[in-house]
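Hi V.,

Quick status before I head out on leave. The structure for the redesign project is tokenized and pasted below; the design run finished overnight.
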């Protein structure tokens, strides 16, 4: 099919799902976009009324509850924040987090040193007030994941072409110890946050930390290795992307794409039925050269080790000696995050995105109820419950289809005799029941004020126009093919806003934002009519909710046409609904991850991940420390860029954004 034929297909496809509430908004908006350049504001407002949608009405300039002066789009070696705000770099890769942490020194960095320092490429970030159960706004633990490392940007003298051969064992061990999770006590004095190095909970978890495996797959033959004949123990966690916080104060960390660190030919593995839905790229394996120092990361030595990864890990930050636990009941996939809420009946609900093109949205609902009065009683809640997957319909409804061995299509004949079969091969189970393939779902967060959920689909260049393929063509919830800019969906559970039933079988849904440039009709974007030339965005990734109910969306990987990754805030209700404003721009090559607030909204924590990963001049991948686009935040010639955790506060001490 030619490009021209593809273009002609699109209007047909749009009509095909015109019954959907979301698509009505969509169609209304696109017409409005086209008209925008020609019609006066009043005419646009009338258009909005015709669709009966408040969002489509032309809003005043005061529509948003956000009061900061929006940034201009820039891309340079520094980071940027609005007038009237302060930005503090609180924790950098290599910073001391214990009284005995060695000074950060690249020349001598090894595993032992890195285990005592803040890790690399911090991603998920959440603030857990201390004492636990309090709402302290100036004292707490930062629970932070460190997703991956780029050795050729960390150490001088390495390049992307030679680092795997040239890294010393100390460097490999330092990389292994620099990923995983950090637990760091922090305190605010006046306007300044600082690390409490002798905090009793401070901890580093990494690629060598001993952990347990629990739930349906624990003890399964496929998880047994020479080091663990029981199938219940694993050393380390890998690719810790986003996560979540349980109501009993444990951290969940999503393992997202651990396969990259394994070496060898996956086609030789016995469990090809699991390999099939792995989305493996053999050219990118062994990215840290760990197989040179730990034989278990080579398939030929340990053909089962890889199945011990890509789970959700639960970490108890209140007990630094407690083994983290991989909760296999939540399925095995490229876990982005695991955001948690409690249903009105007390069951705990975890929302998860599988971050690959055409993968799915999942939910786990515990069998048992959360006990708010007895922390220990919730210890193993995540081992029993129902995993399900999302299916969207064109009438504006969606349902959660259970993935339970022996139920419906998940029969023994189909390969799902036990729940271990289901959780080890979650994607294949979801394929069978007819889940809706999404455009690389990432942020997936329950709004604490309204109970609605916001889900970010980053992008999917491979999404096909209508009618070309059952799985890969556009569908109601992923309406653009290709989808180079991504979109945000809004899922609405039944129940009152203060008692949303996140455990219900069926929700309704809507398109919240279709990303892209509203000035380009071909982008077919959807926002509030007042969205400015600085406020539109592409490639949404993480989403945070502030105490005033606004969502904060961070982006990961906009096209190289002058845009940097950034942080945008917007209302979800009222006149300013879906009107994004540009709040923060991290240094070139980086994304800002995981916006998280103190409960009074006066401090905003952000992870600045992979600074300098692109060259400044042409936005191509940097190949070494020498041609990285920045050495933020130190700007010292001999130092690489350092991924860091920053805090934004309002100079007058007020609520961030307001
Ligand atoms: Fe680690 Fe899906 O980003
Ligand atoms: Ca992400
Ligand atoms: Ca990311
Ligand atoms: Ca991403």
């Amino acid at each position: 099919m030619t490009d021209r034929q593809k273009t002609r297909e699109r209007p047909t496809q749009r009509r095909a799902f015109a019954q959907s509430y979301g698509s009505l908004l969509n169609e209304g908006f696109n017409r409005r976009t086209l008209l925008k350049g020609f019609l006066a504001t009043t005419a646009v407002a009338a258009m909005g009324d015709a669709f009966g949608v408040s969002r489509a009405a032309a809003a005043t300039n005061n529509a948003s509850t956000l009061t900061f002066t929006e940034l201009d789009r820039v891309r340079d070696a520094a980071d940027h924040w609005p007038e009237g705000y302060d930005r503090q770099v609180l924790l950098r890769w290599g910073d001391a987090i214990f009284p005995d942490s060695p000074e950060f020194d690249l020349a001598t960095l090894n595993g032992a040193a890195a285990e005592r320092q803040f890790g690399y490429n911090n991603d998920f970030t959440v603030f857990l007030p201390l004492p636990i159960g309090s709402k302290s706004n100036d004292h707490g633990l930062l629970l932070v994941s460190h997703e991956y490392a780029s050795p050729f940007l960390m150490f001088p003298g390495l390049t992307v072409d030679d680092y795997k051969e040239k890294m010393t064992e100390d460097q490999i061990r330092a990389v292994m110890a620099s990923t995983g999770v950090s637990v760091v006590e922090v305190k605010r004095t006046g306007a300044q946050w600082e690390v409490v190095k002798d905090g009793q909970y401070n901890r580093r978890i990494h690629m060598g930390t001993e952990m347990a495996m629990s739930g349906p797959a624990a003890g399964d033959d496929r998880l047994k290795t020479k080091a663990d004949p029981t199938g219940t123990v694993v050393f380390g966690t890998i690719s810790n992307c986003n996560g979540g916080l349980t109501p009993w104060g444990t951290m969940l960390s999503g393992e997202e794409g651990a396969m990259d660190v394994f070496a060898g030919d996956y086609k030789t593995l016995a469990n090809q039925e699991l390999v099939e839905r792995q989305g493996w790229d053999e050219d990118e394996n062994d990215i840290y050269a760990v197989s040179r120092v730990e034989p278990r990361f080579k398939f030929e030595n340990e053909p089962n080790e890889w199945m011990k990864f890509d789970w959700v890990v639960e970490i108890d930050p209140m007990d630094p000696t407690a083994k983290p636990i991989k909760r296999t009941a939540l399925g095995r996939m490229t876990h982005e995050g695991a955001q948690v809420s409690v249903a009105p009946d007390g069951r705990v609900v975890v929302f998860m995105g599988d971050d690959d093109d055409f993968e799915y949205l999942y939910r786990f609902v515990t069998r048992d109820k959360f006990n708010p009065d007895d922390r220990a009683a919730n210890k193993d809640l995540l081992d029993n419950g129902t995993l399900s997957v999302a299916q969207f319909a064109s009438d504006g409804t969606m349902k959660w289809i259970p993935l339970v061995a022996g139920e419906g299509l998940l029969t023994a004949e189909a390969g799902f005799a036990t729940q271990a079969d289901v959780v080890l091969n979650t994607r294949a189970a979801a394929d069978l029941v007819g889940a809706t393939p999404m455009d690389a779902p990432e942020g997936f967060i329950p709004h604490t004020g309204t109970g609605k959920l916001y889900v970010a689909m980053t992008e999917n260049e491979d999404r096909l126009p209508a009618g070309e393929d059952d799985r890969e063509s556009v569908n109601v919830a992923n309406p653009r093919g290709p989808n180079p800019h991504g979109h945000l969906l809004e899922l609405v559970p039944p129940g009152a806003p203060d008692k949303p039933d996140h455990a219900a079988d069926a929700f309704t849904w809507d398109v919240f934002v279709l990303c892209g440039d509203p000035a380009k009709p071909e982008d077919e974007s959807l926002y509030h009519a007042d969205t400015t030339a600085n406020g539109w965005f592409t490639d949404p990734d993480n989403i945070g909710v502030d105490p005033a109910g606004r969502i904060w969306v961070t982006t990961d990987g906009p096209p190289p046409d002058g845009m940097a990754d950034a942080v945008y805030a917007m209302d979800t209700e009222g006149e300013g609904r879906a009107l994004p404003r540009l709040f923060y721009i991290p240094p070139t090559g980086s994304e800002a991850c995981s916006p998280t607030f103190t409960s009074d909204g006066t401090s905003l924590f952000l992870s600045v991940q992979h600074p300098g990963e692109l060259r400044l001049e042409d936005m191509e991948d940097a190949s070494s420390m020498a041609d990285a686009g920045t050495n933020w935040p130190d700007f010292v010639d001999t130092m690489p860029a350092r991924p860091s955790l920053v805090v934004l506060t309002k100079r007058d001490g007020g609520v961030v954004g307001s």
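Above is the designed sequence. Residues 416 and 422 are 6 Å apart (CA to CA).

G. will cover questions while I'm gone.

Best,
W.
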